[in-house]
Amino acid sequence: MCGIVGAVAQRNVVPILLEGLRRLEYRGYDSAGLVVVNGGLQRVRSIGRVASLTEATSAQKTHGHLGIAHTRWATHGAPTEHNAHPHVSRDDIAVVHNGIIENHEALRARLRELGYVFTSETDTEVIVHLIHHHFHHAEHDLLAAVQLAVAELHGAYAIGVVAQDAPHRLVCARRGSPLLIGLGIEENFIASDVSALLPVTQKIIYLEEGDVADIGLLTVQIYDASGARVERASHVSEQSSEMAELGNYRHFMQKEIHEQPRALADTLHDAVIGDSLLPELFGFDAAEVFAHVNAVTILACGTSFHAGSVASYWLESLAGIPCRAEIASEYRYRDSVPNPNALVITLSQSGETADTLAALNHAKSLGHHYTLSICNVPESALVRQSRLRFLTRAGPEIGVASTKAFTTQLAALFLLTLLLAKQRGRLDAATEARHIQSLRELPGKVAQVLALEAEVERWAERFANKQHALFLGRGMHYPIALEGALKLKEISYIHAEAYPAGELKHGPLALVDKDMPVVTVAPNDTLLEKLKSNLQEVRARGGELYVFADADSHISASEGVHVIQLAEHAGPLSPILHTIPLQMLSYHAALQKGTDVDKPRNLAKSVTVE
Ligand code: M6R
Questions:
Q1: What confidence score (pLDDT) does residue 24 get?
Q2: How many beta carbons lie within 10 A of that of residue 539, not counting itself?
Q3: DSSP 543
């Protein structure tokens, strides 16, 4: 989704802006642009990749000590050059913007009456003209103009603003969209995501809702929504510049799939040291919260929602606590019955997903005060806004298709299940020690599944020319089937649907013929015999089965039944192992089809707008 970088320095900022944009590319975008202040405003914009913008800036010898830059993921208006940011008002003021301005039509009408001419279809253009209008009524004070303008905006924004009359001044503001300040030595920066600034600084200030900041070479002054001067703490980011490099891998998705043993080991490190789990893994007052909760509500989107769905099976069966996993974008708008003793868990790789953040705020507004976020980005808004937190240690996930974030979320949710089971008297010490031992062995078991890649790749060759695929699972493996289908469709563009296998005969069986591959997750659990009957139903209609089976499931290959065997059944951790071959299947199917694996069309990594 859209990304912002800005810099004020004594050196040429263009390389800093371009490198920052390059590091934000993974978020998804369709045009890019920058403005530097160098006498007047020099603007360069291009459709497509940051590489095109880089070529254009070197052709135009763009140079300056103050600048703002942007990658745009189109919402209002097509991905064209005239809609790309920065937007400029009367050659005086330039703005980059993330978010959506809801009252843009009313503002546009008013600004037109004031004589402003609009050159784009974006909601952002109203911001730059509004600031321009106030700038000329506020004695050319850029800070005052931005404060007056943002007071009129409804919706979400993170903005960076420069003016040709203020060649050493970068003003920024945020509400509803993330924005941070990077502190350098006699130079300062802004960005929507810390990864953009890692080559120049790790020292970060996170702006809060409604903040406006006035940034110079040597000074950073922050004002809250009421206009009062405030101090915000600075942090040293835990992320490093090298973590987001591709290394010897062809794609980030491939790298991230193969990083899972390490990611799981790091995520579980503090938990598996002894034979007993401590609630403090989830925050210093987690014991107190766990003692009070009598239900769990999990809110998340996409892949994170699938992790929550698996956890709902664990929490009800192992901890005996009622649990509901819900899609965040639905929860935030429906009338629900709040239970003040429910633990509200938000799950997110990025911690920035607008729908998940809004769902958390909605839950709080309903009186929920037991909140927990399980997240992969330590400094994210979701983590900062939750009472309890668990940080997965997957490391930066760059590929749009979520892989290692999913399996580490599952590991965290399994720890939570064990702690709630213990709290509720449903876990004796010996069983707890056994589960912890299984968690210690998990990274090694994942590595064994990864070793099946060559076999999975051969299957993928057959998928490349398919139009559709069906994924089946039962019980806690049904969400794994959903996740497999999501992976396949988002990166290979093959239409895929997932069903609980018992549901086949209630409709989807009508789709089955020899051209419909049916991918099935077949663990040796209590539902195996039922699943085998469902597979017979598919074979009887000529459907071709691709089965990932536990060794002790005793499903063997036959005509129309292809089988890849995993190790013996892994008990409740089985969903984590069964998801790995589905990730590899979609990766290799996408490779066969030649799609842009890490940046699939129309998608963004962090969905920071509604
Ligand atoms: O950062 P989040 O976990 O909150 O993101 C949620 C979804 O946007 C994300 O999981 C999405 O579905 C992925 N592209 C799936 O691979």
A1: 87
A2: 16
A3: P
Determine if the peptide bond prior to 523 is cis (ω within 30°): no
Q: How confident is the model at residue 509 (pLDDT cuts 50, 70, 90)?
A: confident
Identity of the residue numbered 133: H
Give residue-wise pLDDT tens across range 372-384: 999 998 778 899 8
Give ∠ CA 70-73-79 in degrees, rounded to 5: 100
**579 Cβ below 6 A of ligand 1:** no
Closest-CA residue to 515 (of 560, 448, 459): 560
Helix (H), strand (E), coil (C) string for 221-263: EEECCCCCEECCCEEECCCCHHHHCCCCCCCHHHHHHHCHHHH
Are residues 294 and 235 located together in one domain of the fold? no
Higher pLDDT, 100 or 478: 478
Expressed in angstroms and rounded, the spacing between residue 288 Cα and the centre of ligand 1 is 31
Within-domain flag for 198: yes
pLDDT at 581 over 80: yes
Do 503 and 568 lie in one domain? The reply is: yes
How many structural domains is the chain composed of? 3
Find out whether the beta carbon of 380 lies less than 6 Å from any atom of ligand 1.
no
Task: Measure CA 610 to chain center.
Answer: 13
- Expressed as residue numbers, the domain containing 305 is 253-450
> Does the structure show a pLDDT above 80 at 299?
yes
2 catalytic? Reply is: yes
> Quick one: which of 476, 483, 579 has its CA closest to 257?
579
Catalytic residue among 445, 487, 599, 605: 605
Instruction: Answer whether 349 contacts ligand 1 (Cβ < 6 A).
Output: yes
376 lines ligand 1 (CB under 6 A): no
* DSSP run (H or E) holding 522: strand 517-522
Cα 409 off chain centre by? 12
Has residue 172 been placed in a domain?
yes
- Examine residue 600 and state whether it is found in any structural domain, yes or no: no
Under the banding of pLDDT at 50, 70 and 90, the label for residue 240 is low
Q: What CATH number is given to the structural domain containing 155?
A: 3.60.20.10
**Sign of the alpha-carbon dihedral angle for 376, 378, 382, 387:** positive
Domain identity same for 237 and 91: yes
For the question of whether the overall pTM of this predicted structure is more than 0.90, the answer is no
What CATH number has the domain bearing residue 543?
A: 3.40.50.10490
